[in-house]
Structures are given as structure tokens and as C-alpha cells.
């Protein structure tokens, strides 16, 4: 609280305007201050000690050095699914609830996943390039197989992967999934075959990744695991770039074992101009855009803001990531 009024401190390098949020906060008599990375050093002593709620935009590092200075904060709200940019442990020790919005873009990400699968398996990018170059030859491209005869493997079977499975059903593909945290009944409900990780890799012509980035999943898809996949398989990633070892992926594409990849995420974003993946015809890359639609962004901003309002008022937050040791 600053000068007798509750304060919301927004840490954001991504969105240039916050009118929707400000309108909502104003209705609850909450003042708003926005900080970007270049003004953090100056703003830190001015707002950190007094902020009742903090919005930590994805990519803006909200680590212990910032959290330690939050003297009045009750809630940190993340406008997104991922939360590895926030030190949840430090917030917990400080008695601060951390909340995120895990399901605002499930429709968009599942749609984008299907789009990438079809784009790379139907070779749309090479076809388009060749037509633009004046070449009109449907046979002058890499192998294309009948989609209904393919097996699609889902690594992770959470909300988004289940929507992908439902959207794949009409195509007639065989669908496998591996997720050790999901009960068998859930796979049965969605008519998806649960398998071990090794079986998933061995049988999937198309592997779609749907896991969070954790120490356990970092570089999970490496040379050894990619080599297990059938010759000519494809990899689709709409979760987090670090799940794939990109050098190993490049190597296996060059060796001809992996036919291609559809990637919405990379380990380093934006990528270096000399990243070899950018020039590989077999790789279709989009700029971490699978979450986006006008509707999803409005929902994200509204729910992120509502979490701050509810957290400051001491209400229950259904998407809290922690249970603070100190009661708020």
C-alpha cells in the first residue's frame, strides 16, 4: 500500500498498453504502476516495498532479488501458463501466493498443433516456395504419406493434448500418449492408447510435445530418443523449446532419420540469426504464436487482473501454484 491506496505493480516488457487492466483496477480503487526492464533499477525501491499485487509478465525475471523487496505483496499473478521466470519458492517463503492462467489458450494451442502437423507432413512450406520460384511439380518434394495411416504420439496428456487428440480423431489416425501423471481412466475416456515413453517413441510417426519445461524434461528429446523413432518421423513442439535438444534434432534431420519438425518454440527466443534450424527446409517455425488470438489475449488479461483483485482481497485463487507458509 502506498499513500493509503492499494498498489498493483506490473512488470512487463511485452505489452505496450494496459488500459483493460487499468479499467478493472480502477473499479476496485487500485493504483497501477508499470515497469519495464530498463526502468527496473529506478522503480524497484519506489514500488516494490508498497506493491500489494505484482503482475509478472512471462519473460520478465521475477526472482528472489525482487521478491525479497516485496514487503506488502499478497499475490503475484502471471499472465500465462509458464512460470519458470518467477521464483515460486522465494514467494512461498515470503508468504506470497503465485497464480497463473493455465488454460486460457488451450483452443489456440491445440489448433496450432494441428496446423503444424498438417503443414510439415503435407510439405506445405516447400511446395509454396517452389511455386513462388516458378516451379509447378507436385512430385518435386520430400515423401508424403497418407495421414490416416500415420500414428501420432502425444508426450504429455494434459488439457491441450486432450484437445489435440479430439481434433485428430476425424482424420482417422492412431493416437498414442504417454503421461505418467494421468490415470488410465482418462486415456480411456478420450479413446487414446496409453503407452510407455519408449513405446511412444518407437511407434510414433508424428511426435507432439505437451509437457512443461522442468529439470526432468530439459533436453528430454535428445539424439538417443529421437533415434528410437521410426525413420521419416516428424516432431512437433508447441510447449517449451528446451524440451528438445536442438543440435540433436538438426543432426538427425541432416542424417535423414527425422523427416522434419514443426516448432512454435525454441530454446532461445528470438533465435540467433545463425541458428541452423532457420535455414532448414524440413523445419517449419512460428514465433511462439500458438497461444494467440484476439479472444485468448482478452481472456488472459482479464483473468490475470482478476487474480490480482481477488488476491489483494484475500479470496481463494483456483490457479494458485503454491501454499504460502505465512497466512495473508
Task: Supply database-style keywords.
328 residues; 12 strands; seven-stranded parallel beta sheet; five-stranded parallel beta sheet; alpha/beta; Rossmann fold
Walk me through this protein's architecture.
With 328 residues, the chain is α/β, with parallel strands linked by helices. The chain has two domains: 6-104 and 294-312, NAD(P)-binding Rossmann-like Domain (Rossmann fold); 106-285, Rossmann fold. The protein is 34% helix and 16% strand. The protein has twelve helices and twelve strands. It has helices at 19-27, 40-47, 64-67, 88-94, 106-121, 124-132, 159-168, 184-189, 197-203, 223-228, 246-254, 294-312; strands spanning 6-11, 30-35, 53-56, 75-77, 97-99, 151-155, 174-178, 193-194, 206-209, 233-237, 258-263, 283-285. The strands form two sheets. The chain has a seven-stranded parallel β-sheet, sandwiched between helices. Strands 2-1-3-4-5 form a five-stranded parallel β-sheet, with helices on both faces. The longest helix has 19 residues, at 294-312.
Amino acid at each position: 500500500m502506498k499513500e493509503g491506496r492499494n498498489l498493483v505493480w506490473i512488470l512487463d516488457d511485452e505489452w505496450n498498453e494496459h488500459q483493460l487492466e487499468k479499467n478493472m483496477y480502477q473499479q476496485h480503487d487500485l493504483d497501477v504502476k508499470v515497469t519495464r526492464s530498463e526502468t527496473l533499477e529506478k522503480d524497484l525501491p519506489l514500488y516494490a516495498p508498497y506493491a500489494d499485487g505484482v503482475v509478472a509478465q512471462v519473460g520478465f525475471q521475477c526472482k528472489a532479488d525482487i521478491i525479497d523487496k516485496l514487503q506488502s505483496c499478497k499475490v503475484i499473478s502471471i499472465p500465462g501458463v509458464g512460470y519458470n521466470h518467477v521464483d515460486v519458492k522465494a514467494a512461498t517463503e515470503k508468504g506470497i501466493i503465485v497464480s497463473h492462467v493455465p488454460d486460457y489458450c488451450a483452443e489456440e494451442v491445440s489448433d496450432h498443433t494441428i496446423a503444424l502437423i498438417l503443414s510439415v507432413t503435407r510439405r506445405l512450406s516447400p511446395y509454396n516456395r517452389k511455386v513462388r520460384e516458378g516451379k509447378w511439380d507436385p512430385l518435386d518434394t520430400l515423401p508424403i504419406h497418407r495421414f490416416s495411416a500415420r500414428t501420432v504420439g502425444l508426450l504429455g496428456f494434459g488439457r491441450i493434448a486432450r484437445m489435440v487428440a479430439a481434433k485428430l480423431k476425424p482424420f482417422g489416425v492412431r493416437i498414442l500418449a504417454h503421461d505418467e501423471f494421468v490415470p488410465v481412466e482418462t486415456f480411456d475416456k478420450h479413446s487414446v492408447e496409453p503407452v510407455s515413453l519408449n513405446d511412444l517413441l518407437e511407434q510414433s510417426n508424428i511426435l507432439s510435445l505437451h509437457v512443461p519445461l522442468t529439470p526432468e524434461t530439459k533436453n528430454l528429446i535428445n539424439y538417443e530418443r529421437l533415434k528410437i523413432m521410426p525413420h521419416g518421423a516428424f516432431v512437433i513442439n508447441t510447449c517449451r523449446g528446451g524440451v528438445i535438444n536442438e543440435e540433436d534434432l538438426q543432426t538427425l534431420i541432416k542424417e535423414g532419420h527425422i523427416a522434419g519438425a514443426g516448432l512454435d518454440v525454441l530454446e532461445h527466443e528470438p533465435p540467433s540469426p545463425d541458428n541452423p534450424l532457420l535455414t532448414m527446409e524440413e523445419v517449419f517455425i512460428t514465433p511462439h504464436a500458438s497461444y494467440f488470438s484476439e479472444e485468448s489475449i482478452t481472456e488472459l488479461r482479464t483473468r490475470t487482473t482478476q487474480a490480482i483483485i481477488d488476491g489483494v482481497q484475500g479470496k481463494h485463487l483456483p490457479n494458485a501454484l503454491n501454499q504460502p507458509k505465512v497466512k495473508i
